[in-house]
Amino acid sequence: MIVHKPRGNVNLDAKMIFGEDKSVSIDLQCPPVFSSGTEEGEELYTKSSLLVDEDEKYDIAILLKPSKYQQGPEIGGVEISNADFACYDAYEHCTKKSTNSEAAHPLNLRYDSGFTQKNIIPTKPHQMVAHRICEIGLEVQCLLSIDRKQWLLKVRAPQPLLEFGAEKLRVRKLQRGGCGWVQFASDIRETLKDYDKKSKVVYFSDAEKQRIVYALLTWDPSQHGAGFNAFCMLKTKYFDAIFPLHNFNQLRRLQSRWITYWRYRVTQADTRATLLSPDRSPIETPYGSKSVQHLKSSFDRVKQTVSDVLQQPIEQVAHYFGGKIAFYFAWTEMYTRWLVLPSLFGIALFIVQTKTNSPDHPLAPLYAVFLVIWSSTFLLAWKRKAAVLAHSWGSLGVEEEEVTRPEFHVNSDSMKGPKKYYVTCLHAIKLSVSSFMIISSVILLALLTCAGFAERDRLEMNYLEIKASADSIVASFVKLWRTGTFSWSVLPQLLKLHLGSGFWFYFLLTPILYGLLIPFLDICYTACARWMTNWENHATESRYQNHLIVKVFAFRFVHVFASLYYYTFASTAENPQHVAPTQQSSRFLRLSMQLATLMILGQSCKTLLSFLELWLALRKKKHVQQDSFLLHMDSLLTDQQNPLEQTHRASNRWGRSTLIACSRIAQASDPAWEQAQRAPYDTFQDFTEMILQFGYVTFFSIAFPLAPFFALCNNLLKLRLDAYKLCHVKQRPRSHNASDIGIWGSVLQLMSVIAIGTNSLHLFYTTTQLELWFPVLQSNETLRICMVFLVEHILLAFKMSAIMMIPKHTRSTKENIQRERHNQCRLSIFEVRA
């Protein structure tokens, strides 16, 4: 779009260029009267070039709370925004880069009023925030929203300040010559692998830049920081959000290998090989489909695409999003790969069960033992893999410094100076009370769930018995069900029975009510868990999150697996002291149907519907923003073309107002505003879904052997959906250092132990194969219980011995760690001698 408005002898052309990343750049072309005719024109031209020079390499964005009124003073009858000149002042200060990163230069904010400069005291919120940021040497750009009621500040750090923050933050960098990782220091910068000899600077990844800039913003002024921490009144009063910004160049490269990995990217080598091919026709392009080279490479591309299905660019994810996010995707990738073997075993078992027309097959006990060994081996392999990844990212054994939560209420021994915290017995009492309440509520929920399903079964059987007295077909069905000879071949007959509405009412009422109550109970229990965790008053964010995860996951574990445990082990016999072996087959089939419903309909539909909901919400938000932007832009252009104002404006005034209008449009269309509208991303929901799926596979796959296969198919889709959600739907999360998946590793170990106990019960109470092998188990219930404990202890001993015997680190990782320690000792000796 070209905006051209002649006014006397002055023409100012403003060209708006819309980029692929939805950013807008303004290309202003000033006539000779502006560029070289007068001193005022020279100053306006210089300022316009600074205002429209968009550099996307900003790391952090600060969104301020909206004000009630539009912001912008009246100057010369034209309402302009402070951002038009605050950006210029920030750029003017930041271009004076300091050679010493430790020097903090104070910033005297100046306000431009008709090309005359005068010093002012920052009184507006965005001015005070920008003043603090620029005081420590950071670069800031102020943007005003489309309604001129909200400010957004984009912040970045110059190279000297990045190196200063990296040294203070103890960022680990890789040295040349295979010397391993070392903490960054200015005197050893030339020995680092990321050091560029030509430009004489050290390269920092996007994740490292975010950590450094965020640390500079939150450190106390005494530590050379801006002081925007949890105890800063300025942040509490005016800040709405602090979030990292996307680097669209790196995001596109990451997306091409992560989300759209199947798209073939033509390289220079492919083009050169096609052009030099002797079988290429004279009129054929390098991308022609008739090229022999193209046909030969098609199979390789298909082969590469198939192999990339189970691979992700984890290294690029770690460099862009940080270690915490990368570890989630690395664990999901490895878990999906390990599902291939139980999927093949499960498919083979399912085929055998179908041919024999019996779910209780002799291979079922072997499959249960295999799943226990598989889960324990997988967790051991993941520990070794996590250590390798952490070492390759320089985060092995490195944990972030704990930050005190602003909600942490403490007793301080003085009102001034740093607070000294100490633990009281009241905190221990709160933990005990909350733990008792959580355990009691979880047990109560499990009992209510089992009672509901038991009542449903009782009403269902009563209805069938009444119906059976009048219908011989229904009577045969009830006989099959009660004797335990009910199998998959009888299922089609159930659909042909005219059982009436009463049977289906009893059969479907409890599952429907249970499904409707789960989301409501989940919301209520999550709110209660947050309230109880806040009441416990944890000092650090990590302890707060760990206790919250334990509470919420315990509830979800119960309401997801309660029905499955009921159908597996709850007695339906008339004599509750003994379960007839003939009834175990019926319960086996019911468990298969329940688990198949949860795996196929529940998990897959939930993944697709959640993604569709987020996608529709994002599209709706974009349409609203585009409509408001076009409406405001039309009002700006209409206001400038009003003929009544032509007699009141000189030529330079018209050029100045056009510059301000174009600057407002450029600020309001910045991609940072769209990122600010997104919801924050957290791995809690994704980790919860994956670990519950891990429970489906390891707990009850003996009843539904296709569970690992459906989990594998779901994860192949979920990997790409989560990647798309992270890149395009959610806000870019703040980078965190991590050496593992955190508390989720402990949760997985607990799930593995529960899997041992559950599968041990399956061997003696779900299947009848061991009773056929050892008939004495049918009449001796005490022996059956003893055998359950014996098998459980054998499997548990195998797990513990494997943990103790298999080392956590691989041999290469141990050698690298020893080499790094040796180099650190040598450096410390040289420092002492110096």
UniProtKB/TrEMBL annotation:
<keyword id="KW-1133">Transmembrane helix</keyword>
<feature type="transmembrane region" description="Helical">
    <location>
        <begin position="436"/>
        <end position="454"/>
    </location>
</feature>
<dbReference type="InterPro" id="IPR049452">
    <property type="entry name" value="Anoctamin_TM"/>
</dbReference>
<dbReference type="GO" id="GO:0016020">
    <property type="term" value="C:membrane"/>
</dbReference>
<feature type="transmembrane region" description="Helical">
    <location>
        <begin position="334"/>
        <end position="352"/>
    </location>
</feature>
<keyword id="KW-0812">Transmembrane</keyword>
<dbReference type="InterPro" id="IPR007632">
    <property type="entry name" value="Anoctamin"/>
</dbReference>
<dbReference type="GO" id="GO:0005254">
    <property type="term" value="F:chloride channel activity"/>
</dbReference>
<feature type="transmembrane region" description="Helical">
    <location>
        <begin position="503"/>
        <end position="527"/>
    </location>
</feature>
<feature type="transmembrane region" description="Helical">
    <location>
        <begin position="595"/>
        <end position="618"/>
    </location>
</feature>
<feature type="transmembrane region" description="Helical">
    <location>
        <begin position="548"/>
        <end position="567"/>
    </location>
</feature>
<feature type="transmembrane region" description="Helical">
    <location>
        <begin position="785"/>
        <end position="806"/>
    </location>
</feature>
<feature type="transmembrane region" description="Helical">
    <location>
        <begin position="741"/>
        <end position="765"/>
    </location>
</feature>
<keyword id="KW-0472">Membrane</keyword>
<dbReference type="Pfam" id="PF04547">
    <property type="entry name" value="Anoctamin"/>
</dbReference>
<protein>
    <recommendedName>
        <fullName>Anoctamin transmembrane domain-containing protein</fullName>
    </recommendedName>
</protein>
<feature type="transmembrane region" description="Helical">
    <location>
        <begin position="364"/>
        <end position="382"/>
    </location>
</feature>
<feature type="domain" description="Anoctamin transmembrane">
    <location>
        <begin position="318"/>
        <end position="820"/>
    </location>
</feature>
